[in-house]
Write a structure and sequence with these properties.
- The protein is mainly α.
- It folds into two domains: 98 residues, no CATH class; 73 residues.
- It has eleven helices and no strands.
- The protein starts with 10 loop residues before the first helix and ends with a helix.
């Protein structure tokens, strides 16, 4: 009667087992040698994650506070009582306070824009520029409006070259038939005032390419002709 033979382990298999055992031993040795550092790194990561979560909760809470305050003062702004909207009342914080205290939140950022707009309407151009620049402009109509606000202040100051560039950035930041044509025309007007007929022609042509079927198109065609005549002088 034949006896069953135990399967022989191949040399390759034995080598693989030896390598795994060596690697495992090395890993254990490395952990033992660097135990404190590894634990410190793990704890540090947990602290960072917990901190980020706590900050997010805190920001959400602040944004809720800011939204309530902004809701209370917006009616005053919309009624045209701009000075009161900026400074607030004894019971209601104004746009400036909301913007300064909560500017890092979404609602505080919106208050920053409203504050800049109110300051501009009141002729407080230096302050308006500061708040327009502090507004965290996104790629939406409000962000484009903030750039246009900066441009309008520079135009008021007679800095037409800077105004032209900012109006052009506003036009390119967000495409809207309600705002982009005006920004392009304003950019062209300021390029002309700065003596840059070539750039003026470019933005006027951009207007005609994108909005050539609007009622303002004949006026822009005349502006191109004027810019061309000016550039030839």
């Amino acid at each position: 009667m034949s006896m069953l033979k135990a399967p022989r382990t191949s040399r390759r298999h034995q080598l693989r087992e030896d390598q795994l055992a060596t690697a495992a031993a090395a890993s254990v040795g490395f952990f033992e040698e660097h135990r404190n550092q590894l634990i410190g790194v793990a704890v540090g990561l947990l602290v960072i994650i917990a901190g980020a979560f706590a900050y997010s909760l805190w920001q959400n809470s602040r944004d809720t506070e800011a939204a309530e305050m902004l809701g209370n003062i917006l009616t005053t702004f919309e009624q045209g009582q701009l000075a009161e909207a900026l400074d607030g009342t004894a019971d209601t914080p104004g746009l400036l306070e909301i913007a300064d205290r909560y500017g890092s939140t979404a609602t505080g950022n919106l208050a920053t824009f409203y504050a800049a707009d109110a300051l501009y309407q009141l002729g407080r151009f230096d302050e308006a520029l500061e708040y327009f620049e502090n507004h965290d402009a996104g790629g939406d109509i409000l962000g484009a409006s903030a750039l246009a606000g900066q441009a309008a202040v520079h135009e008021q100051r007679g800095d037409n070259a800077e105004a032209a560039q900012l109006f052009r950035r506003a036009a390119d930041a967000y495409d809207s038939p309600a705002t982009t044509p005006d920004y392009l025309m304003s950019a062209g007007r300021n390029y002309e005032a700065a003596g840059d007929a070539t750039e003026a022609e470019e933005v006027y042509q951009q207007f005609l390419d994108d909005y050539g079927d609007t009622p303002s198109a004949p006026l822009v065609e005349a502006l191109i002709a004027r810019a061309e005549a000016g550039g030839g002088n």
